[in-house]
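Appendix B, Record 12. Input sequence as logged:
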Amino acid sequence: MDDLVLTGAAGIIGLFCAAIFLLYGIYSIAVLIYSSAISGQYSMVLLILGALLAVGLLYTATGVWLQKAGRI
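Logged structural output:
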């Protein structure tokens, strides 16, 4: 039972760490977009939004491919 509790606690700590990193990344990107828009660097805003769109499309394409392959 002690190993199960230890493994569960480690998993929860890992999930919290991943959530903190993810939220920090979202915050950093939002601040970068905001500061670029305020300073008039619209090309940077479009570049960041394009990169986010490309990542989202690749994530979706990977999911569709795995579903068609029968892995998920």
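The chain has two helices and no strands.
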